Amino acid sequence: xxxxxxxxxxxxxxxxxxxxxxxxxxxxxxxxxxxxxxxxxxxxxxxxxxxxxxxxxxxxxxxxxxxxxxxxxxxxxxxxxxxxxxxxxxxxxxxxxxxxxxxxxxxxxxxxxxxxxxxxxxxxxxxxxxxxxxxxxxxxxx
Length: 142
What we know:
It is a single chain. This protein is mainly alpha-helical. The chain has four helices and no strands. The longest helix has 32 residues, at 72-103. The radius of gyration is 16 Å and the shape is elongated.
């Protein structure tokens, strides 16, 4: 694997995590607790793999990737990027707390935390994929 492969891998991991979270959400709504648990723990593992790959990529390629878009799309990109970065910093402790509560069987507290964690985590995963498309597919720098 080369350094150029990491952005697509990271986007794939983010997309997989988002899919697993959505599946987990639908499963808990239908009271399929064991399947929900499996999906959500898988989403945590996939997100952790993303985090490791993200760090490896940025250690190997410390210079920033330039956005090639111009005009109003530039504002859209930076609004998504800034919100993605800020919420990505917040989501790690939120996920850890939410999962810990579930594993300890503190389900009411888990639900209360999940009401905040799930949409933030989903947003971070989906916008991570969008950032990839903005940078590498739709408006790559020249």
